[in-house]
Design goal:
Layout lengths: L8 H14 L1 H11 L6 E5 L5 H6 L5 E6 L2 H10 L1 H5 L3 E5 L12 E7 L8 H11 E11 L10 H7 L6 H11 L2 E12 L5 E12 L3
Parallel strand pairs: 1-2, 1-4, 2-3, 4-5
Antiparallel strand pairs: 5-7, 6-7
Bound molecules: S-adenosylmethionine (SAM).
């Protein structure tokens, strides 16, 4: 995986801090779709620097996060040390394909700029479904997607992600058992390495039936 898919070492930490800055609008739009409330039990997959939690999740009763990169776990722990001290937050190194939580654990699961790096997406969605409480929701953001009308050939080469369109996602979600599937789009400026206009960033939402 590239430094984007699994930020590693000193360079990975610098890059992740860059994401924290450059993804500000991605976080804001995701938070607005997720409508996180104090009584939520939140899981974030692929939290990177942990800055979304720091800015948008502090008011939540219980927060958990999982990231495949041990260096991101270390960085996110530094950034969220107060929440850790208050025992409101647990941050774990691991892969989406094997979540270390029991069935029906979370009322909301979010992921920002990570979904398109996951291998075996069918099994990843089944894992998400398993740990989500009945009636719970997932909110997943991807700045680049097949609905944005852009040529991503160079980005795929450099960053190494998979592109999805609404139809792919709808089918994948239905096969995993999700209902109430909806799509939101936003426009934003993305800065880290070279300025980009994200023309049609995608945020999809779906629920586990009660
Ligand atoms: C581009 S970064 C985004 C980080 C953060 N969400 C943000 O927007 O600032 C992608 C993150 O997903 C994590 N990741 C990639 N594949 C993963 C997997 N299979 N399971 C868990 N985390 C994963 C990476 O380690 C990385 O921290």
């Amino acid at each position: 995986m590239t430094q984007f898919g699994k930020p590693t070492g000193k360079l990975g930490k610098i890059l992740a801090k860059g994401f924290a800055f450059g993804h500000k609008d991605f976080y804001k739009n995701t938070a607005s779709v997720a409508e996180l409330t104090e009584s939520d039990e939140l899981l974030e997959i692929g939290f990177g620097s942990g800055m979304f939690i720091n800015k948008y999740a502090k008011h939540i009763k219980h927060i958990a996060g999982l990231d495949i990169s041990p260096d991101m776990v270390e960085l996110a722990k530094e950034i969220n040390s107060k929440l850790l001290d208050e025992k409101k937050l647990e941050l774990i190194e691991g892969n989406i394909l094997s979540l270390p939580w029991s069935d029906d654990s979370f009322s909301v699961i979010i992921s920002i700029e990570s979904f398109f790096f996951w291998e075996n997406i069918e099994n990843a969605l089944l894992e998400i479904y398993r740990v989500l409480k009945p009636g719970g929701r997932i909110v997943i953001e991807m700045a680049f997607n097949l609905e944005d009308g852009q040529d991503h050939t160079k980005d795929i080469k450099k960053i190494g992600f998979q592109l999805y369109d609404e139809k792919n996602i709808r089918n994948l979600l239905k096969e995993s058992g999700f209902i109430d599937i909806s799509f939101n789009y936003y426009k934003a400026f993305w800065i880290p390495i070279k300025g980009y206009i994200v023309t049609k960033g995608m945020i999809f939402k779906a629920c586990k039936p009660n």
